[in-house]
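**User:** My hope is that you can spare some time for a protein that puzzles me. I have put the entry right below:
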Amino acid sequence: MALWIAPSLEGLAGVFPSAQWDEATPKSQGVDSAKLKAAAELLAKTVGNDGARELVVIRHGRMIWRGDDIDKRHGVWSATKSFTSTVLGLLIADGKCTLDTRVAEVLPEKRHPSNPGPDAAYVEDWRPGDPDWGAQQGRAIIGALNDLAAQHVNSL
């Protein structure tokens, strides 16, 4: 479980993403430590201890609270739609991509070796019986979903 407390993205340059979250004290990020601790304790009482043990709180791109079991993986099902669409919106707002940007333009390693064009990303992950939109259109999209499903990621 993660909680993002950031009314604006101002001042985040160079903080995230990186290999690890930068950690900071709640006070250094303008958060009352006692109130944050009380909120985590209430969470533990309300939803069970796992909720608090798996809690991560990010403020201004820095981790200010972490439970002791934050690396536990969960199937989050459709909740990832909200995160994915938010991140995409932020990337578009920052001018880093558009709705027409192809995966292979950002992740060149996803280009198919026999067809280095950006449309070839994930085509190899399309399987017979999967849908397409005639003339083999949409196979890269379905292939990307197959690739995510193979990694146990539900992103759409």
Residues 1-9 have pLDDT under 50 and may be disordered. The chain has two domains: 2-66, 82-150. The two ends are 19 Å apart (CA to CA). The first strand starts at residue 2 and ends at 5.
